[in-house]
Amino acid sequence: MDNQLKKEIEAVVGKLNSITLLPNQGCTSSVQQITTGRNKFLLKTSYKEKYREWLKSEAEVLKKLASHTEIPVPTYYGYIEEADRSHLIMSFEAGMTLTSALKIADTTTEKKALMKGFGELLQKLHETKPIDLFNHRGDWLDNQLVMAERYLEMGEADGNAELLNKLKSTKPIPVNQTIIHGDCTADNVLVVDGKVQMFIDVAGVTIGDPRYDESLAISRFIDNEVLIKSFYEGYTRYKVSKEEYSYFDEGLYEFF
Ligand SMILES: Nc1ncnc2c1ncn2[C@@H]1O[C@H](COP(=O)(O)OP(=O)(O)OP(=O)(O)O)[C@@H](O)[C@H]1O
Ligand SMILES: [Mg+2]
């Protein structure tokens, strides 16, 4: 780490003791644990323009949620922009992603409990009274489609123009908008003390279509009837149809 950056980080957290690259790296950023005499922090760094924008909105979300403990996320400490990269500093949470927890769970009973917990956490988020922290202008889905078009033009999307046109012309019938996570996969929730307790990677948190979260949440488990059933023991407020699921998970998500 160069001296200038170290200085800026120390201005936020105090004198650094150690800097360690985490074994589990994200796809869109690099993550390091930094420690001071007393505390542990997570330093998340992004380089590409698209991901730097996401990191900036993650910083804004964490800042806004600092006074809203009903939505469990890491604590915000600071955000630093350099010429060619951006950094976010947040609390280091002792836990592991749900993906990792499911991998090391020995029994089906344990896996079922984790999936039910995932459903409960998401249910709680979607049932949280929308706070006017998120000045959402216009309809969330319309905004996402505009952004999808931009990513397509930038050559930054997996989806193609044909898929995007289809998404524009087959929008699902609207449902009530709620607070959403916006990238609610098993990689982006943390299991702490055996319980699914916290959201991470929160750049997409806003008021939006809860069916997007639900579809991404069940995506990895779609062929596992037992785990899907457990998820829905926790998430009882709605069940996406096959059409809604494929619109969001196999459609819209291809652009993000
Ligand atoms: N606050 C935190 N405390 C502890 N570990 C964390 C924290 N935030 C992230 N991690 C770890 O870092 C990894 C990557 O974080 P994150 O999902 O935010 O990065 P990302 O690059 O946006 O990921 P991706 O693009 O792959 O979804 C996580 O899987 C988790 O293991
Ligand atoms: Mg992630």
Structure description:
Helix 4 (108-127) crosses helix 8 (225-234) and helix 7 (210-219) crosses helix 9. By secondary structure, the chain is an alpha+beta fold. It folds into two domains: 3-91, 2-Layer Sandwich (Phosphorylase Kinase, domain 1), CATH 3.30.200.20; 96-255, Aminoglycoside phosphotransferase (APH), C-terminal lobe (Aminoglycoside 3'-phosphotransferase, Chain: A, domain 2, Alpha-Beta Complex), CATH 3.90.1200.10. It has a five-stranded antiparallel β-sheet with strand order 1-2-3-5-4. Strands 6-8-9 form a three-stranded antiparallel β-sheet. Helix content is 42%, strand content 19%. A hairpin with an 8-residue loop joins strand 1 and strand 2 (30-36). The mean pLDDT is 95. It has nine helices and ten strands. Magnesium ion binds next to loops. This is Phosphotransferase. It comes from Ornithinibacillus hominis. Pfam families: APH. Residues 26-220 form the Aminoglycoside phosphotransferase domain. InterPro entries: AGP_Transferase, Aminoglycoside_PTrfase, Kinase-like_dom_sf.
